Amino acid sequence: MRLSRFFLPILREDPKEAEIVSHRLMLRAGMIRQESAGIYAWLPLGLKVLRKVEQIIREEQNRAGAIEVLMPTIQSADLWRESGRYDDYGKEMLRIADRQGRDMLFGPTNEEMITEIFRGYVKSYRDLPLNLYHIQWKFRDEIRPRFGVMRSREFLMKDAYSFDLTAEASRAAYHRMFVSYLRTFERLDLKAIPMRAESGPIGGDMSHEFIILASTGESEVFCDKSILDLPVPSEDVDYGSDLSGIVSDFTTPYAATEEMHDQAEFERRVVADQRVTARGIEVGHIFYFGTKYSEPMGAKVTGPDGVDVPVHMGSYGIGPSRLVAAIIEAYHDNDGIKWPDAAAPFDTAVVNLKPGDGATDTVSEDLYAKLQIAGKDALYDDTDARAGAKFAAMDLIGVPWQLIIGPRGVKDGQVEVKNRRTGERDMLSYDDAISRVAA
RNA sequence: CGGGGCAUGGCGCAGUCUGGUAGCGCACCUGGUUUGGGACCAGGGGGUCGCAAGUUCGAAUCUUGCUGCCCCGACCA
After folding, report:
1. DSSP secondary structure letter of residue A108
2. Which nucleotide's C1' atom has the smallest distance to the CA of A410?
3. φ, ψ of residue A201 in degrees (nearest 5)
4. What angle do CA A223, A225, A228 make, to 5 degrees?
5. What is the pLDDT of residues A370-423, one digit of tens each?
6. Does any strand B atom come closer than 7 Å to the Cβ of A154?
7. What is the ipTM of this complex?
8. Main-chain dihedrals φ then ψ at residue A166, nearest 5 degrees
9. Angle at A363 between CA A360 and CA A369, to 5 degrees
10. Using N-to-C axis directions, what is the helix angle for A167-187 and A244-251, rounded to 10°?
11. Is A52 within 7 A of strand B by CB distance?
């Protein structure tokens, strides 16, 4: 992408409304624009990141056996009356009426709708297990939206719903999502710690929040250092096998959020130098809720014994839009964002320091073309801004690699290669630069 | 919803107390000089001062009402 043809409205000054670093950087880097309290437009740079995060989540859901669907944002109130949640949900749900005066709502979640879909088609236990997910915009009329897309009213959510014949089978489905989440966050270079959450209506140990550590996190978390070093399953993990061992490895060490923290237990179970107290951001939440919806909504299957039984369900959420902000909270410095490779909006920036100069133009164009051939998504800064402004902008948007082409280097047949995360800079030949960046 | 604050050009702000031609920096446009860490000179464009009503000869400024937004608290992916 040529920067001169891109839409990248970078702000030089900090917008006054942005308190936390991710919000500030997302606004300054031209990733998002606020349209209302807690409602944001995603600009090209932000959208690229959002899509990459989304895609990683999608790949890991698919790998774990979940199947993608896409449900609408607008739902009928009648569906929610069936589950009894229409009255319970309260003011957080945005209620609207269509022209016929029918009660509709902007979905804050999709348990009712997915259950309705399920019961319409699935009649036999032979079709289980089943896990359907979608990545769709949600609206929750939060009392106080804040922190940009970290806590917005409209937000993107990946929500998966599992259906099983028995509680035991549902536990296995839960474990698959548990492992899938570990892998998803690992791919984004995030240390996500599963922490036992307030249990749902059924209780037990089948509800976990995934918390990533970031110094600017919202809540305080406490854990055993050993949990940070546990190996995350690789991509060839067998989702058909029993995953309870992996889940157990991750749920055995002490890990709790402020709400669930018990200082006495923490000190009893974890030796002093293994105790970690840090800030955390919740990026995922999984839970098992049994027959809470299948029962009232009549989502039943016929079991092997010929008897109809309500299915056991679980739901599994990740907020990609919040994740984008969370990644920035975890990866930034005073100059801007330092994207992990997997989430970076571009792989490499090609910075032509002197557009209009024959030599730098030729080299820049050539390197830009070579990167494309190598399959790299490059941002080519071909604008005539001053060098300082270009460096500041590139550091702000945080592209992992920068190829800096100026008259001085070109004179010697070299370009400067800068790594945004490590800050390392090297003068390399053109070919070496390409192989360094394409590695 | 309770407490605090803000609203003046795209962004950041001054001006409001004490009513009298709407300003500054950045950004933008034109021309020129520049060009390895956010350049300089000259010229230029752009604002219903959040909205409404009121007071006044005269309102960004005073009064009343409303709206939007931000921060602190309870809630959440």
Report:
1. S
2. B36
3. -65, -25
4. 95
5. 999 999 999 999 999 999 999 999 999 999 999 999 999 999 999 999 999 999
6. no
7. 0.92
8. -125, 165
9. 135
10. 70
11. no
